Amino acid sequence: MPELASPVTGAYAFADVVAFRPSGVANIQRSTMSTTSAYMVASLLEKMSNSDTDFRYMALNDLTNELQKENFSLEDSTEQKVLRAVLKLLEDKNGEVQNLAVKCLGPLVRRIKEAQVLEVIDQLSNFAAQQKNDELRGIASIGLKTVIVEITPNRASNVCKRIIPRLLQQLENSGGSYEVYMDSLDTLSELLSRFGTLIPSEQQLQIQKVLLPLLSHSRPAVRKRATVTIGHLVAHISEQQFESLVEFLLEKFNQNQDSSDRLRTLVQTTGVLSRYSASRLGAHIPQFLPIIITHASSEDADDELREICFQSLESFVIRCPTEITPFVDQISGLALTYLKYDPNYAADEDESEDEEMKDDEDDEDEEEDDEIEDYSDDDDDVSWKVRRSASKVLAALIETRHDMLSQLYQTVAPALISRFKEREESVRVDILQTFIVLLRQTSFYGGDNVGIPKEKDIFDFDISSERIDVFSARAASANPNIAMMETEEGPKQLLRTLVPSLSKALARQLGSKSTQTRQTGFLLLKELVTVLRGGLDDYFEPLVPAIKSSLTATVSPDSHHIGTNSNLKIETLSFLRNYFRTHSAESVHPYLDRLCPAVIQAVSDKFYKIVSEAFLVCIELVGVLRPVQSDPTSASGYKLSPVKAEFQQYIDEIYNITTRVLSTSDADQEVKERAIMCLGVLLSHAGDQLQDQKAALQMLLDRLRNEITRLISVRTLTIVARSPVVDEEELQNAALTSVDQVAVLLRKSNRVLRVASLYCLETLTRRFGQSFSQQSVQTILAELKPLISDADLHLLPLALSNAVVILETNPQSVESIKAEILPAVFQLVQSPLIQGSALTSLLKLFAAIGKASPSDYDSLIQRLINPVLTVNMQGVAAGGVAAVSNKHASSTISQCVAVLATNTDEQNREKTINEFENFVKNPSTNDSVKYLSLLTLGEIGRKADLSSRPDIYNTVLDLFGAQSEEVKSAAAFALGNISIGNVAQYIPRIVAEITEQPKKKYLLLHALKEIITRYTHQEGGAGLASESEKIWLLLFENCESEGEEGTRNVVAECLGKLTLTDPYKFLPDLKNRLNSPSAHIRGTVVTAIKYTFIDQAQHYDELLNPIIVEFLSLIKDEDLNVRRLSLSTLNSAAHNKPYLIRNVLNTLLPLLYQETMVKNELIHLVEMGPFKHKVDDGLEIRKSAFECMYTLLETCLDKVDVYAFLDRVRAGLEDQHEIKVLAHLMIIRLAHVAPTAVDQNANRTLWHPEIDDMIGPLKATIDFKVKGNAVKQEVEKNQELVRSALRAVAALSKLADTSPSARFVQFENEIKNGPYAEEYNNIWNDNDIKESRGDLMDLS
Q1: Which of 755, 743, 827, 818 is nearest to 789 (CA)?
Q2: Using an 8 Å Cβ cutoff, are 458 and 474 in contact?
């Protein structure tokens, strides 16, 4: 081939030259690149017309690659030549060249001008319209769709104008071929799905007029393709046009009553309408539904028509859930009837069911053979499709009607169980899947899981978790909370009554030859025991043979069933793991002699996934063989059960196979980790039964040195160190050997590893710390030192707790702690970030140091307060805004000083109190020192009686007149807490002061709030109880005045917390004041109730439960502020005590939704000089309402109508900034809970109509541009709102199924190709990482 050898004319030779040119020539100018591109294109054009097929093909291939490069450009002179050359190759005789030419059109249309694009459209349309060359017509149709996909929206309008008339002309041609119709409809569908919004209404009407007659076409495939095209069209047409379409369909239904073929098309079209325009079709459900139900139930209908009817009903149920409500019972009854529709089965259904209940299990196989013989051998039988579509309708009902769960268990569940014997495998699997959907809905919406913690494994090996619940109770069925919350008619209780028939029916299917049926059956059983947290205690026996055969089944190495057999084993093991976890050891023991050998054999399987799952089963199995449970009443803290003699061999076998796996170097990482977990459980539960504990512990320590298995080994060592059955001496030796290694791990960058190491060190130190060498203690303290900072507030409390444990177990280490830890601690107390668990651990450390080294008391106090005493206050006026430096640090220091003072002798304590009292009395003391002194006196006074100091009360009270607001606040805090030390003496004085000194009322009320908040019956209860009535009346007197809202808020908090001291006395009075004519009193009362919810105690819930709705009904109060306060109270109830409001939400939710609406009467204009500013007085109340809605998603989703809820979320997307952010958060939350709660079937989603309705406001938010003169805060605020909207779009995108909404796909593509593409991709990647991390880390 001379052309290839030519360096001048050969394109390929030129490419070689470019590839091997010197690096110095690589940086050429733009003009040179342009020349190079033109030269290359000219060469390629020459080869595209070559007679050699290979040349044409390679030239096209090179052109396609060049067009996809960013720096490639076409000159005007060559653009037309390239275009014509590519179009000419569409007619090439070689099929591969033709296909490549079509592929080349995609990148080409992105490079050429719009005029050339239209020329391409014309040429392709001509090719597609001709009927002489079918191959060219097919290629041209593919080319048209390729071009449409690549066209940008700014060119789409002209393209639509050019191509749509030609497509409609082809569709109107009565003499057109079948293939032309199909290709034209395909192309039109693509256009409508991408650019339907750009097509003018006149042209939409024309399209509809052309498409509707095609619903009566003689060819079924054309009719079906026309329905799809109509679906893409209706998403964009006007209401009037949609109404005319509905009228057309209804008229055709009347005209084609006897034509099954036409009826199928019409029913299918209504289903398509529900998919693409559910909100509009919903209004016509009462018209369409009776027609479809009539045809589905007609005796004259064929099975294909029935199947399509059920498919449309399924779509209606999913996409029009509100409108379908009146017909739910009718649809359910029809689906149940046809679930057992099998005209080719000779036996009577009812008789066979009765006989089946009486048959002995020994005759099962014989019955199945007889049963099969009763079927007609009809190859054309499609009745199974009707049964399958009926089961899908039931699944849709279960998914969308969680409010009917109890009814579904009475009607649908028994019918599903009776159909487990279905003869057609695909239908049988669908029926089992439908029951699984019912179980998952029960798990999510059953109503008894609110407030009950999720059950954990015997050992929580979840790497992402931190605390390890080591010896928790096994059987969840024994949980008294569950029994208390399950009602007799509740879904879970109804499910329990079905377990006998369910297990019997399922046992037959688990013994069948169908691998898919057995696998789905075990999945169903796993869901069952998960939902009921047990339930198979008395019904497990029939399942044992099937479990054993599934685990021991073998297939030949060359069999295609290897994959399905492995999946069956994994599913069986997964069920067993959940079974062992949720049932008591006593109920499991009778079956272990048959189950243990099969499980242990699975650990030796060749497939690592099976081995990994088998190890998880062994972890649960060891807990069954030797239960060890926490028991606070026992002397040892644990309840140990002896190992039965017959179970010893299984413990030995599990241990042997575990050590064998750990000894091999080629085991999979996941298998290694779970083997280590299993070894830990063996040591923790049955260490005293192992022959060589030392070897087992040494094996664990060896894995601790391996970087790959280090993390799981640290967690396992933590568990083993808390075991009561491991040999004390061997465990101590292992602890002393490993403690230095674990301490060094605190240097690692892996944060999860550091957290695990801190827990491990704390456990080892708490048990064996007294035996640690001084060198080991020094090593631990040296590694803890860098963690004593506020850089990581999660590691900080753990590091401080380790220091406390070291001090408790090694009092002689106090000097080392003072040298290594205390300098960092004194720096730490200055941090404004110390709170919560970090502060608690810090106070424990000071308490431990105070006890271990009493002689350092004065030094510790001085080092704590010196930073405040020496703070530079020069230039700051008394009472100025900067008069008090670092208030948070002062609060931390005061609590540390109080801890030291209360853990020392009386002499030291008195000296400290005198010092701070003198600071307060001294008028020259700066406000920072006074602030610290008052807080300290309050903290000490709360724990010690200071009433022996006669001046302290008046000294503090006098500072209510200080200039500094911070000092005033600290004085109120101090007065309240000092009074706690002697309630009987101080309460009357404070009550009197509130009445006598109105100027100090606000601060005195704060002091009273401190007393009531800290008050308990053990601390001076008699004094407060005697004054409670007087305090109650006094508080209401102070909320009736037209005072500041701040005073009323303090009064409300006092009233709420005072109510908790005697709810039987004060709750009825609060209820009586709900009808007060004063809006201030009504608002105070409803706020007071909010503060009662904060207390987690339940002793007064029986009083609050019947009257809670009366308090919360103030949401409809005439006063705007009362409504806002009521919403805040509802939010608190939903967050803290959701069980109180669950049964009254049907009353409260309509009131709540009402407050999310924008009310124009609350919007007014305010003139500010030459400017007018719009003020919305309803914004705060709407914000409170949306916050409450978000909380309800977290706690009461099962009581919320998701569709009504979504209506308000959509409205929130068009509201103001703060509410838009809340709406975005709710979308993200719904996207996470919806798959769990609703979307149980693969490739199906509930959200298409709702997603489409959200596109507009989300797009408006993302596209919004701030003004050029906007200040920095406005720009940042808009950027955060855009990021919030992008997160919502990403969450919605994850809900899309295999054929997502065309509008949403277009919207998402615009984002991916727009200015926020990078940010959107980062959000996607961040979400994926979080999700994958959760999956990968969950090793339990």
Answers
A1: 827
A2: yes
Contact 1074, 1085 (CB under 8 A): yes
Report the candidate in 1111, 1011, 1006, 1004 with the shortest Cα–Cα distance to residue 1061. 1011
**Which pLDDT does position 1028 carry in this prediction?**
82
SS3 of residue 785 by DSSP: helix
Which pLDDT score, from 0 to 100, does residue 488 have? Answer: 53
Residue with tokens 């030459």: 1170
pLDDT of residue 24: 40
| Beta-carbon count within 10 A of 864 CB | 21
Question: What is the C-alpha separation between 529 and 1152, in angstroms, rounded?
Answer: 37
Packing angle of the helix pair 1045-1061, 1079-1093 (nearest 10 deg): 50
What's the Rg (C-alpha) of the chain?
A: 38
Closest among 811, 835, 819, 985 to 895, alpha carbons compared = 835
Which residues, in sequence order, are CB contacts of 516 under 8 Å at separation 6+? Answer: 425, 429, 564
Round to whole Å and give the CA distance between 215 and 222.
8
Tokens for 1131? 């939010």
Residue 437 has a pLDDT of: 94
Rounded mean pLDDT, 570-591: 94
C-beta separation of 317 from 396 below 8 A: yes
Pair 477, 535: CB distance under 8 Å: yes
DSSP assignments along 513-537, one per residue: S-HHHHHHHHHHHHHHHHHHT---T
Integer Cα distance of 1110 and 113 in angstroms: 69
Q: What is the 3-state secondary structure (H, E, C) of 1123-1164?
A: HHHHHHHHHHHHHHCHHHCHHHHHHHHHHHHHCCCCCHHHEE
SS3 at position 348: coil
Instruction: In whole angstroms, give the CA distance from residue 122 to residue 137.
Output: 13
Helix, coil or strand: residue 24? helix
- Residue whose token pair is 């997307």: 1213
Q: Place 555 in a pLDDT band, splitting at 50, 70 and 90.
A: low
In angstroms, the CA 1225 to CA 1291 distance is 10
How far is residue 1065 from each of residues 369, 961, 1029, measured CA to CA in Å?
A: 73, 36, 10
Q: Which DSSP letter does residue 454 get?
A: P
Task: Note the pLDDT tens digit of each residue in 344-363.
Answer: 775 544 444 444 444 444 44
Which positions ≥6 away from 745 have C-beta within 8 Å? 710, 714, 753, 754, 757
**Stretch (H or E) spanning 1173:** strand 1171-1176
Single-letter amino acid code for the residue at 324: I
**What residues are paired with 1174 via a beta bridge?**
1165
Q: What are phi and psi of 629, to 5 degrees?
A: -125, 150
> Cα separations (Å) of 788 from 861, 1164, 1260?
20, 54, 48
Count of beta carbons in the 10 Å neighbourhood of residue 699: 20
Which H or E run includes 1171? strand 1171-1176
d(CA 604, CA 1050): 68
Contact (CB, 8 A) for 334 and 292: no
pTM over 0.70: yes
Q: What is the pLDDT of residue 1019?
A: 47
> Is residue 832 a contact partner of residue 877, using CB atoms and an 8 Å limit?
no
Contact 967, 953 (CB under 8 A): no
**For residues 463 and 454, what is the distance between their CA atoms, to the nearest angstrom?**
17
Strand, helix or coil for residue 640: strand
Contact 282, 323 (CB under 8 A): yes
**First vs last Cα of the chain: how many Å apart?**
65
Q: Is residue 507 a contact partner of residue 417, using CB atoms and an 8 Å limit? A: no
- Using the CB atoms, write b or e for 244-253: b if 16+ within 10 Å: bbbeebbebb
**805 pLDDT exceeds 70?**
yes
- Which residues make beta-bridge pairs with 639? 629
Query: What are 966-987's pLDDT values in tens digits?
Result: 999 999 999 999 988 888 888 8
Name the average pLDDT for the chain: 82
